[in-house]
Amino acid sequence: ALMAINAWFMMLVASLIWLIRRHHVSALAAKAAAPVGILMTLIALITGAIWGQPMWGTWWAWDPRLTSFLILFLFYLGYIALWEAIEDPDTAADLTSVLCLVGSVMPDLGKYAVEVVSAYGISAALLAGLILLSLRKGRKARAELARIEHDNNA
Fold first, then answer.
1. pTM to 2 decimals?
2. CA quadruple 138, 102, 32, 42: dihedral positive or negative?
């Protein structure tokens, strides 16, 4: 789990360097760290589920740590998919850097999830739902913005 968090932190630092200095090696370093991070996140999820079976009597419980690492896994998937979807390397580096900045709350939330959730008295499922809902609304807003831009150019 710590390696997954450190991989995202490396991606964050490299993304910041890309956004500030436009150094191409930093974009490549962030891109190279993503597969390592997703693998470590997947290992953390699998071992968490294996540990959870005898403890909770089920393979998956909406435990704050497991849930936040599931969301981190989805951010890693989105990051890698965004790199693959965009052909222009500079545009891909820009967009993935922004995604990395937005997603950098997840590793911290994964590390301190139990304290955050218990301090505010919210369930992890509710927290995951709120995060996913905000991501969905952001996608709708971007689609609406693209439609307006398209209408203005036509």
1. 0.71
2. negative
